[in-house]
Amino acid sequence: MIRAYKFLMRPTVGQTQALGEMLRDHCSLYNGALQERRDAYRHPSKTSVKYGMQSAQLKEIRAFDPERQGRWSFSSQQATLRRLDKAFAAFFRRVKSGETPGYPRFRGQSWFDTVEFPKDGDGCRWDATPHDPQTRVRFQGVGHVKVNQHRPVAGRVKTVSVKREGRQWFVVLTTEQDQPEPLPATGSMVGIDLGIANFLADSGGDFVPNPRHARTAAAKLEAAQRAVSRCKRHSNRRRKAVAKVGDLHRKVRRRRLDHAHKTALTLVRAHDVIAHEDLKIRNMSKTPAPRPDPATPGSFLPNGAAAKAGLNRWIMDAGWGVFLTILTSKAESAGREVIAVDPRNTSRRCPECGHTAKENRPTQEKFHCTACGHTAHADTVGAINVLRAGLVRRSARQG
User: Fold this and answer.
1) What is the tens place of the pLDDT at every residue in 290-299?
2) What is the pTM of this model?
3) Residues facing 170 on adjacent strands
4) φ/ψ of residue 64, rounded to 5
5) pLDDT tens readout for residues 203-239
6) Which of 83, 232, 272, 364 has its Cα between 20 and 30 A from that of 190?
7) Element (H or E) spanning 88, and its range?
8) CB contact burial 85-122 (16+ within 10 A = b; e otherwise)
9) Pair 301, 308: CB distance under 8 Å
10) Domain residue spans in the chain?
11) pLDDT in tens, 127-138
12) Quick one: which H or E segment has residue 392?
């Protein structure tokens, strides 16, 4: 089982400068490899450049520029080239599947924030002693950096990554560990319905309120962004104002992650089987297509884009995708079962008689069956139907 740990680093002033130079030089390597691939494709012979060819050139690159490229770990530079190769593989996959391709782009120094070391002990060394507050991690060209290790690391460290977030530096570890002991069985099964008004409703009639982290911080974010617009471009004052906006966004992200972790942990501890809707969040948050006016060429009819933009904002603020990823990970560690079901008509189907109709849900919250008269909260009805569909799918899978 692979597990990730993220710890705050406390580098000195000199180490902070060295870490910044490491990111800068890896960014330069990434952009140079991307330019080589672009030039090769534009050549009349349409030469294809692969990762193996670029990795074989690293020795010459390091010898040609020992001050900027030769001082860093060879394996970390290979990981940077492999990162570019993955970007091209994803590009060609999207082309073949008919999606928006998104050709790999050049990275500015502020866009390149992570360097990976594929193996502990090769260019880096995680040096942690149990119950020792002086935990350090060593990077080639940087030295031993203090780490705020707030919890023990279980398993064997496989990869180590350096990550910059604003003015803070983090070390990210991936470890390989044995499958933990499953939690004691509770005999409980639950279905959950994710929403906007309430973050979550379960089949037992309970609700988890939506904290709306982005709306809570909207006033501060608006003021910080106005301060950026008043600053002169490329000035130190503007750089500080931009950093403040980034700090506020990171704070919102941390709050959202904290809420998702706590909600998922509560569900995993209380239930053996958890069923949820298989939501296509990317499709749900798409911008509506324009509607040309046939009577007036060049003009368009109203398409509800403003209202849809507001809905998209609340969908992204809720963080359903992050929550479901965390829920699946925690359930796997605890020996619980998570089942994704088709979300169609889950809030329109009566749990008493099975009648399905659009009229069964007259409002966002109210459910009233037009066939048998059953009345309940619409989100609770959706969670009950999700649980039933999940149990049917579970039985079919086991049978």
Assistant:
1) 888 888 888 8
2) 0.86
3) 8, 163
4) -75, -35
5) 999 999 999 999 999 999 999 999 999 999 989 999 9
6) 364
7) helix 74-97
8) beebeeeeeeeeeeeeeeebeebeeeebbbbbbbebee
9) no
10) 2-176, 189-398
11) 876 555 678 999
12) helix 378-398
